[in-house]
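[Amino acid chain]
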Amino acid sequence: MQKFDPRGRKVKILATVGPASRDPEMLRRLFKAGADAFRVNMSHGDHATHAETMKAIRELEREFYRPVAILCDLQGPKLRVGTFKDGKAVIRHSGHFTLDRNPEPGDETRVELPHPELFGLMSKGDRLLINDGKIRLVVKEADDERIFCSAEVGGVISDRKGVNVPDAEVPIPALTGKDRKDLAFAMENGADWIGLSFVQRPEDLAEARKLMGGKGALCAKIEKPMAVRRLDELIEMSDGIMVARGDLGVELEPQEVPPLQKKIVNAARLKGKPVIVATQMLESMIESPAPTRAEVSDVANAVYDGADAVMLSAETAAGEWPEEAVTIMHKIAHQVERDPDYIERVRLLDTPPDPTTADALAHACMTIADTVKIGAITVFTGSGSTARRVARERPSVPMLVLTPSMRTARRMGLLWGAHAVATKDIGSFEEMIAKGKRMALRHGFGEAGSKLIALAGVPFGTPGSTNLLHIVTLSGDELEKYEG
């Protein structure tokens, strides 16, 4: 077992695993290049393959003595058209096209829409987007049997292409039968986070959380306009948020997505919930060994906005340059965080502490680190709530999160500024201070003369009891004395 030094950055990198990266040696290379967490996309592959992937990720933990977060991303329901006589048809620009309940193969005038819940739901003027928005239909008339549309943008339509309904709340649950099986598999195999797709309403999250049975953390993917309208409720009900820009970009106009991204990031930060910016961040690196300048700026802006994590999708799952994609994302984040104005920029969002002792102490950690030269903020936590409070303040120094729970340590893989270590529980103030000093030295967060902030709750082991802040100075020989 070898020690793995801190990343030297606060934002986390979430890398998607796929055919290009599921080999254990490639996973190892991605981890060493900078991946803090791995996303297992349940839309592709089978359970046996995913189980092998998750096992290989857990082997990395044992090799590098560092908790690694696994996020299992559920597919969610997919709305699709039926089939065509010739496998495809052409919808004329400004022409008419009908979606109906007739199961016979379609043509250039009509096709089956095998989703009865959509009939009677659509109103005149509503949009239907087909094949990721490449075809845009506007509803002219709708009843329980057919939806008659005009083609705002026509084109080639083929069998079972996806349908997006941006202007209505679709009355179908976020969890399909497949999702339920995938969720059960993820829990059985120790997933740390669950990504829930197609979230529209708080009830979607309540159902998923019930099925999770107290295991894992729940990440709501914001990918539909209906979710944006109930954003605060969804943040309240979840453990984290993902800005799923790909699907948002289908259902919204492209220019609407950037300000919405900032709104979602800020809303999650205000609540102290981790927020991930995802999709198309280094898209050109699926085929190219280097990103475009615009992509670099996109990643940098997400870091400047204070996102907890940035995500790679097809770049690492199916691209030709997975290791290079993680490496450049790490370099971008590292460069941004070296900017003297970085901390000021991420604090442009005012996050006033709640009127609680825990929030007041978390806020004090930030101001002390700004005033005194501090090596790290050492946070002792069982559930991780204290670490989330500190991260919400975006302190200028890293957090060394010490927890007796491996489950909590792994979840920290998506929390800004957190370097988590699973360690034995503590029973006294003296033991806490001694252990905090040793861990800081062991994990590269200080040397002789360095100051640390220790934050914890007394009595130890009581959730939500954060009430103690202490500043200590390292002598530098704490490890030798302990081992001696």
